[in-house]
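New to this. Please check this fold:
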Amino acid sequence: MSIDDVFARCRSLDRAALIPYLMAGDPSLAQTESLLAAACEGGADIIEVGVPYSDPIADGPTIQAAASRALRGGATLDRIIATARRFDRSRITAPLVAFTYFNPFFVRGVERTAADLTQAGFEAVIVADLPPEESSPVREALLRGGLGQILLIAPTTPAQRVPRIAELSSHFVYLVSRMGVTGAGEAPWESIESLASRVREATPKPVAVGFGISTPEHVRRISAVADGVVVGSALVDRIAARDGRDAAAAVREYCEQLAGGLDRCRRSA
């Protein structure tokens, strides 16, 4: 099932899509497949797969620590792609989105990486530190490789830029709920609804909200105004707390809890 198909299915069920984030290689590359499969078993509709990077700008302490663990374990982009090629896709049923930064793409080669990610089963890429105005070469390479590029809109994004960013974004638009970096905690609920409404006015594409979402109640509240809910740091924390032991069970249980918060009576878009 494609990303577009997922959002269409969720829309028919009158609910938002659950989009968990997992860091490839944390706690090990050998466990990555089982964690992704566990997320699917727990109700994940789409999965963001983080590519560890030593100098991130959008990641908070939890994701940075996961990236450091993954890098120490040898989770290079080459090895992540090789691992993903061996995934049993009968277990990993959700579409995969790679979350990365420009440097790994540039160093490895944009055209090569786009083609390899497609062959490894990814459907889209988020390049977190690439401004839309500078993204054309990457976007064109991704499209040639069969990948979509998902762009981010922040609370500080000027209103006049929102339509253009939404137009350039493939599949859906990622709305960052707050300023700062990733991390579990309280999202600014009073502004999320107005932000989501502003983006909806600019595009018919689905809107997914991330940053600061960590509980079933958070998921329920976000799903009332968005088409997708992204949860990362809180899930990564639960994996770290298991120290590699029974991590798949932790992922499955937490995704089940989050899926239980999806609002099945959300207002129509």
Summary: The first helix runs from residue 3 to 12.
